Amino acid sequence: MKRSFLNKGFTLVETIAYMSLLILISVVVIQSMVSLFSSYSQIRVSQDMETTAIQVLDKISRDVRNATAIVENQSSFNIPESYVTLSVPNTLGGSDTIKYYASAGRVHVDRNGSYLGSLSLPSITVNNFELRYINGTSTKAIKVLLGVQSPIRDNPGVVYENFYTTVQMRD
Question: Which of 48, 81, 106, 149 could form a cystine bridge with 118, CB 3.0-4.6 A?
């Protein structure tokens, strides 16, 4: 009597080889995904810091250009948490006082003594807001130095970045 055996499966060596190949491919795919998410977090933090810098610097630049005067006795320059008060014309023909200052890691703005809000995004901390008053013979300007920081999600590191602008007052 003759017995015929049909191959109905994989040998143990084949199974181990296939499993090893599957594990290797899975590790490569998982590492790629982790790297992708880490890169996304870093890009998002950079975008948030740049957005905060643009909001702060553009708003200050616009108001300094339109200001008729810097209220020097209500301003402080050349320190890490500087503040400036500007006299800016309003639509009614009068003038408003606008104050920019840093407090609790944010840049804030007041108009005529009323708090208007923060110019910084909640995920960004302002660690340096320094204003320098440039008073030349024929021009007045303000140099703004803005230092921001933000933690990277799922990463123990913190990203720091500095932004600068100089704005000349119109006469």
Answer: 106
